[in-house]
Amino acid sequence: MSHRLRARAWTRFLAVFAASLAPLLAICAYAEAAPLPTRIVYGTGKIVPIPASIPHAEGDMVDQRIVPNLRWIAKRYPIYITDGYSGPLPNGEHVGCNGCHVKGSDHYNGLAVDIVPTDPSSTCDANWAPITRLALWAEPVQEQPRPPFRWVGYDGDAGHGCGNHLHLSWNHASAPMFQLAEWVEVLAVNPAVKPGAAPKKKKPRSAPRAPAGPPGGISQVTTGGVSARLAGD
After folding, report:
1. Which of 88, 151, 156, 226 has the most beta carbons within 10 angstroms of its beta carbon?
2. CA 176 from chain center: how many Å?
3. Contact, 131 vs 76, CB < 8 A?
4. Residue 62: which of 180, 193, 176 has the closest Cα?
5. Per-residue pLDDT for 5 more than 80?
6. What's the 3-state SS for the chain?
7. How far apart are CA 196 and CA 169, in angstroms?
8. What confidence tens digit (pLDDT) does each residue in 81-117 have?
9. Is residue 212's pLDDT more than 80?
10. Which of 189, 68, 75 is nearest to 134 (CA)?
11. pLDDT digit string (tens) for 119-135?
């Protein structure tokens, strides 16, 4: 067979192969783009270490109610968490970034994480592509995050973005700094797991309204919540 005929044969084969993959790729793309159901988790939270199965900086902790979501995300995107809960523990030790979050940040409730690639760089290179996909999945339209996310900080947000970091906050009840929220909205990735006691009162049919707040993952400092210093032991 001549080189020209061989080249034509390979071109035809590749075209047929690509066509056969198109439906599968379309399904995968849709699956990543499609929203997932969410649920409200009530009951007392607890500040816990991030499991080893989720790449993170040593000592990082979060509210245990978002751990299943972080595990689900980590299985689909090569992430590395640089910060979670930022505040005091019952023993007086401070964990997380000290003084680098704005006042009222969801980091102070254990319901926000900062994310970079597993092989990070300070420039927006190919390593950031999965993080960008995650950011676009969590917030398809700027300033319109999909539930359960309260705020997504990435491209277009000061101090965030490709080459810097991705910030994810979860919707939650109003709670002062360093206190745990009464409820948290999470992705229903494992409905069998119920990391919180069900409330005595009847569960509302629709999700409770998350407190309004300025951009930046800032929570409203009102009343309610459980002290992280007391619930973290």
Report:
1. 151
2. 21
3. no
4. 180
5. no
6. CCHHHHHHHHHHHHHHHHHHHHHHHHHHHHHHHCCCCEEEEECCCCEEECCCCCCECCCCEEEHHHHHHHHHHHHHCCEEEEECCCEECCCCCEECCCCCCCCCEHHHHCCEEEEEECCCCCCCCHHHHHHHHHHHHHCCECCECCCCEEEEECCCCCCCECCCEEEEEECECCCCCCEECCEEEEECCCCCCCCCCCCCCCCCCCCCCCCCCCCCCECCCCCCCEEHHHHCC
7. 19
8. 999 999 888 788 888 787 778 777 999 999 999 999 9
9. no
10. 75
11. 989 999 999 999 999 99
Q: Who contacts 46 (Cβ-Cβ below 8 Å, separation ≥6)?
A: 63, 64, 180, 231, 232
pTM for this prediction: 0.70
Amino acid residing at 17: F
User: CA quadruple 26, 28, 32, 37: dihedral positive or negative?
Assistant: positive
Q: Which of 231, 104, 113 is nearest to 180 (CA)?
A: 231
Which tokens sit at 224?
A: 């309610």
Residues in the chain: 233
Give me the residue label for tokens 């597993």: 118
CB of 172 closer than 8 Å to CB of 106: yes
Evaluate whether the domain defined by 38-231 bears CATH number 3.30.70.
no
Percent of the chain predicted with pLDDT > 90: 55
Interatomic CA distance for residues 118 and 127, integer angstroms = 8
Task: Let me know if 229 is exposed, middle or buried by CB neighbors in 10 A (0-12, 13-18, 19+).
Answer: middle
> Helices 129-138 and 3-33 meet at what angle, rounded to 10?
40
